[in-house]
Amino acid sequence: MEEHFFQCPYCWEEISMLLDVSVSFQKYIEDCEVCCNPIEVSVGYEDGVLNSFSANSIEQ
């Protein structure tokens, strides 16, 4: 597991989440720990190194 810090796309507060480095690609919804809005998280690893990360609002 690896801790990653980023800004919430709703409240702009810096938050962190634990990422599983053993999975090469993950996409899921997780609530912001500050404002509780749902964030779509996409994470990509290559050879155990984070090579892509996005945290987006799920609003259209």
Automatic annotation (TrEMBL):
Matches recorded under Pfam families: Zn_ribbon_21 (PF14255)
InterPro entries in alphabetical order: zinc_ribbon_bacterial
Name this protein carries in UniProt: CPXCG motif-containing cysteine-rich protein
Highest taxon above the source species: Bacteria
